[in-house]
Amino acid sequence: MQVAVELLEYLQSGAWQGAIVFLRVAATASLLPAFGEQTIPMRLRLVIGVAFSVIVAPAVPPLETPAGPAGFAALAVSETAIGLALGIMVRMFVFTLQIAGSIAAQATSLSQLLGGSVSEPVPAMGHLLVTGGLTLAVMFGLHIRAAELMIGSYEVFPPGEILPAGALSEWGVARISYAFSLAFGLATPFVIAALVYNLTLGVINRAMPQLMVAFVGAPVITAGGLLLLMLGAPLILAVWVEAMQGFFDNPLDLTP
Q1: Phi, psi of 86 (to 5 degrees)
Q2: Rg (the chain; Cα; Å)
Q3: pTM score of the predicted model
């Protein structure tokens, strides 16, 4: 009888700790690239959150039981907030590819091509870069790095502690500014090509005002943009994957 009581208490404590871990892990997993996409059904995302929780829970140290329902509610809110913050920081890398694709498409007059064919209204260049980036991220072990991030977060953000607003805002601003700078850096070849194209059209228009340079130049910039995408996409995605791996190596790095 005593053994049964002890086993029941152990199961109750394990279930409570698993529920707390699930709150943080599921919030992070719901925003992860590839695993938290809107095209994935909600039930499958729930299964992914449970799977990550099963992986992370054994590595989490025992948690103290909160005092009453109010303590549990405060702990649940703080754990969910930490999970959302981690997920958003990783999600910023997907936004980086979308921004880079939008900049490249605007520069090469391809922004309206297949713009509304996916769940998020991004140009075809952005959709292609995002799809390729997510594929490479999963191939290079995104699920493993994400699990490591969740486990390591318990050392940096212990359960039950409120996130400091100042440090969180500084971290968020640093990651957002880095995402925009990285996006512009990835799209720089397209911006330079568009600048050269417009300067060339300006010179031709000044030399031959009677020539309809827009009709001549439109196919050139379209073909040039597609050719530049074909040649530059492997390098763009390689730089992006390296940047994501650098984030997982040091998530709290605030240097650009």
Answers
A1: -65, -45
A2: 24
A3: 0.83
